[in-house]
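Input sequence (246 aa), recorded before submission:
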Amino acid sequence: MASYNVHGCVGTDGRRSEARIAEVIASLDVDIVGLQELDLNRRRSAGVDQSALIAEKLGWKYHFHPAMRREEEQYGDAILSRYPTNLRHAAALPCAAPFYCREPRGAIWVEAATPLGKVHVFNTHLGLGRRERLIQARLLAGPGWLAEVPAGEAVVALGDLNSRPGSSPHRHLMAVLGNHHAPSPATCPASFPSWWPVLALDYVLVNDALRIEEAIAVRNAVAVRASDHLPVRATLMAAHAGCGSG
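Predicted structure, token format:
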């Protein structure tokens, strides 16, 4: 699986290209990806449905949730999958945004039917304010979201948390997932900015029904130009027999 902030499909060269984002995702060799910063019916993106265009080029299924609506224009997050998915929940997150960024935030939760069995996949993009991120992470860790998943079922949380490894939002999400391992570059690779990645902001987090075999920020010639973030790709395995079944 992978998490990828696509920056409205506008690359570091200033060019908008949904096809280029799809090319990057195809190169990752993943089955499910959580995308952040997608446009729908926005003037700046020629009114296109970016989630639909990317999914169509990949031949995948998708669910989009608008964190922001301004008349007909929408902006938000999506989960794209090779496998059948069922939308469980999508909603706005509470906002205590700082004065310099009043952008609404949201989250989306789907169930995916994978070779490992049923996997609950969450995708989000937390705010820029420290207090805002903590409020949002606490909500996601609680009832209606991560805490709602039945015990023993597999969970993957994807997203741009705008938070460093070991920060309060990161710790809250890891705790509810039952994962208490100390963060490291091996599990939290630097992904921002794409041209010289020094910050780990984009995550693939799992509960104890899964284990991460490898997590990397994919840095190739196309990915460096396609967005201001690199995609973070993780290879996941069942932690024990029967993971996610049922």
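Checked by second reader. Confidence is low (pLDDT under 50) at residues 242-246.
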